[in-house]
Design a protein that fits this description.
- 72% of the residues lie in helices and 12% in strands.
- By secondary structure, it is α+β, with helices and mostly antiparallel strands.
- Helix 3 packs across helix 5 and helix 9 packs across helix 10.
- The strands form 3 sheets. Strands 6, 7, 8 and 9 form a 4-stranded antiparallel sheet that branches. Strands 3-2-5 form a 3-stranded antiparallel sheet, covered by helices on one side.
- Strand 6 and strand 7 form a beta hairpin.
């Protein structure tokens, strides 16, 4: 009994130890996926991704050697990663060698697809590096080195566009354009250095030309300014001299005229004094005679004045009556003319209004009728001048035609009892190969296939079996 109890205790202890070890081992299989990683787990039945943004970020990594529960794991980063080509040898359109430094930034967009394509992240980077290298070489080989050096940003976009269709097959996407960081000469090549020297010398030449032109313009401006100042100074001196001479002349003339006027005045004064003496002598005798004549003349003048006054009064009265009649007749004439002109102007304005209204209605109706025509003409001109839009319309028509042909072929094959295994690149190509069965090309292809089979031992055996079966059927 004692031995049996001891044996049971030892068995229980072993079981406990095995249980504890198994529990610790199982705990050691538990995995918590870091934030910047994704673990793609391949089980017997399914492929599941674990990490941030997925259904779970914890799992148990059962060894792959265990049946039923064993699994394999591929670890990939979810953070951005870079592909760096520091000194990649490339060629331009003319096969000129040079080195480029290219940086590309990617991230994994479909972890399951990436895990199916590669076994590790290092292998993924190697394959992506090869893709980037091929795209860079393809794009750069289509352009000349001068254009590549001038338009780096445009070539970065071209690299990205070239790589983009291939990245989806690896479950990867570019997070920004591939950057063309630098262009350098390859070993034993001075192409880049020569281009830089040419551009540097060109810049120096342009700078010297601009400096020389600026200096020339500055000197010409200084000379022109000095000339203008000197001309202004000489013109001022000339005007001062002319003004001084004119002043002296005017002063001399004025002095001479004053002297002459003094002498004339003296002569006139002397003559007047002599006339006064003569008048005193002659007029003394004449005064008496003139007094009598004046008295008679005054009487005569009074009579004449009275007659003239009466005559003037009659003339003025008749003239006033005539003017009144003329003014009255002129007023009636102007009133009549103004009335007639007003009626004529009203009739003209009415006619012009009617004509303007008719023209406006005609223009409006013409614009309404021509609006759709002008729109169609402008659309036709736009389509005729836009080659890209024409190509787009032709592409749409070609797609519709290809779709109609494909549908007709599918309807024809639906009722045909034909089974074809096609390894063509696309469904359209496969369907075209099926239709070739009913043409001369199809017969030629079958004959070529049989000829190729006859060239190998296995093919000869297969053909001999068919031939034997045919002979048996004939017999």
């Amino acid at each position: 009994m004692l031995g049996l109890s001891l044996f049971l205790l030892i068995g229980l202890a072993v079981v406990a130890l095995v249980g504890a070890a198994s529990f610790a081992w199982i705990l050691g299989l538990r995995r918590v996926v870091p934030v910047n990683e994704v673990h793609i787990v391949q089980t017997r039945k399914d492929t599941v991704s674990y990490g941030k943004g997925f259904a779970s970020n914890t799992y148990y990594e059962w060894p792959s050697r265990l049946p039923l529960v064993g699994l394999t794991r591929v670890t990939l980063p979810v953070s951005n990663f870079a592909i760096d080509l520091p000194e990649y040898a490339a060629y331009d359109k003319e096969r000129v060698p040079f080195l480029v430094h290219v940086m590309a930034f990617f991230r994994i967009s479909d972890s399951n697809t990436a895990a199916q394509r590669v076994a590790s992240f290092e292998e993924l980077k190697e394959q992506l590096t090869a893709i980037v290298q091929g795209s860079v070489r393809t794009v750069l080989a289509a352009h000349e080195i001068d254009q590549i050096m001038l338009d780096r940003s445009r070539f970065g976009e071209a690299f990205t566009k070239e790589v983009q269709p291939q990245l989806a097959s690896w479950g990867v996407e570019a997070i920004k354009n591939i950057e063309l960081m630098d262009i350098r000469d390859a070993k034993e090549s001075d192409v880049i250095q020569n281009i830089m020297a040419k551009r540097t010398s060109g810049i120096a030449r342009e700078s010297r030309l601009v400096v020389a032109d600026n200096s020339r313009q500055a000197e010409m401006a200084e000379i022109a300014a000095k000339r203008e100042v000197e001309m202004s100074r000489q013109q001022a001196a000339e005007q001062v001299g002319l003004r001084t001479a004119e002043k002296d002349k005017n002063v001399g003339v004025a002095n001479e005229q004053a002297s002459q006027q003094v002498k004339v005045q003296q002569r006139e004064t002397a003559a007047k004094e002599m006339d006064v003496v003569q008048v005193k002598t002659v007029r003394g005798a004449e005064i008496n005679r003139e007094a009598a004549v004046i008295a008679a003349a005054q009487a005569k003048d009074v009579a004449l004045v009275n007659a003239d006054a009466a005559k003037q009064v009659a003339v003025v009265s008749a003239e006033a009556n005539k003017q009144v009649a003329i003014v009255s007749a002129e007023g009636q004439k102007q009133q009549t003319v103004l009335t007639a002109e007003g009626q004529l102007e009203a009739a003209k304005r009415n006619a012009e209004g009617i004509a303007a209204e008719g023209n406006a209605k005609g223009s409006a109706e013409t614009a309404i009728l021509m609006a759709p025509v002008d729109a169609q003409i402008k659309l036709a001109e736009k389509i005729g001048s836009d080659k890209g839009y024409q190509e787009y319309l032709l592409g749409v028509r070609n797609i519709e035609a290809a779709q109609a042909v494909g549908i007709a072929q599918a309807e024809a094959l639906k009722s045909a009892d034909v089974k074809v295994i096609s390894n063509a690149g696309s469904p359209g190509k496969g369907l075209s190969s099926v239709m070739d069965l009913f043409s001369a090309d199809g017969g030629t292809a079958v004959a070529s296939m049989l000829e190729a089979l006859a060239q190998s031992a296995e093919g000869k055996k297969l053909l001999s079996k068919f031939a034997a079966g045919k002979d048996d059927a004939t017999a």
